[in-house]
Amino acid sequence: MKNALGMSCAAGGRTNALMRGAAAIALVLALVVSASMLGGCSSAGTSGSEGSASASSGEGANAAPVRIGTMPTEDFLPMWAAEKDGFFADAGVDAELLSFDSAQALSAAIAAGEVDMAMVDVPRAVKLCESGTPVVMEWITLGAEASQGAFGVLASADAPYSTLPEMAAYLASGEGDFGKEGVGLASNTVPEYVFDMLCEQADIDPATVPQQEVASLPERFSLAATGKLAAAALPASMLRLGEANGMKLLAEDTDGDNISQSVMIATASFAEENPEAVKKVAEAWNAAAEAIDADPEAYSVLLAEKANLNEAIADTYPVAEYPLAIEGDAFLHPAADLVDPQLAWMRAKEYSTHDVTYDEATGAIEVD
Predict the structure, then answer these.
(1) Cβ–Cβ contacts within 10 Å for residue 247, how many?
(2) C-beta separation of 134 from 85 below 8 A
(3) The pTM is what?
């Protein structure tokens, strides 16, 4: 599966803007380098050898081995903690964690049967089902509450606006050239969904705001930092990185309605054939989430390493509060009132090509 005054700039202001823009680019390049060095990711996915040893070292593991895929984001922290602190072994499950450098690579691995469970967002879970790989949404990994995780809209420090309505009014006026290409987004993604919902909350029709397709998050960040884009829709780590570099946060989804969630899915075939393994992964998640929530600072270094946080924000980046996966014997599947609006949005944008419904009781996505 969460960066903005005056209508014109003097020459000195432009020089400062360029310096700040250059600093932002340097930071985001460092972020990319850090991701490649720390994550060790490839399109085929890699697992941490340290974690694999600890997960399989517990005696009495009695559930089927589970391959769990993810992108290197904070949403997955309890799984990394379960790997590091032995919660998988305690639950009696042999879990292998696989990290992927893109959502497309992760989806391909799920479709190919190389991953049994994975952390994704709701739109991606739906597209997997539509493309012939049925999945079950087992629990929310981040976003059970609006305060958990964040996506938002970031603009350059020198943008002639400071809020989403001000940006929309500026772009509609046609009076300036700043960021005239519009807001950087990627189609059918959580940042795009959040941007549309934030616009609606601010009584802005998102269709009236110029938009630019920029699939790469680092490129989107850099274009917004230098004012080539009016703003960019980005996840939490890049929002905080931009703010640390003086960029303007126009809006984010941690206040008001709960908009975005990441979810843990299991392929329908794996969940049907190995229900005990899925349950034990959920139990390990619970143990890790409770440990993190009890002492978040104890996991800040692990988060910075695994989520590839830039050094500019690593020491101050907040550790989220994580929801539980299971209560008793019942999975805490995502609530329908959180999923259904995303299904409706996908239909309205014509991203969903089928009649898709969601069953909260089972976590199943039905495609007709």
Answers:
(1) 27
(2) no
(3) 0.80
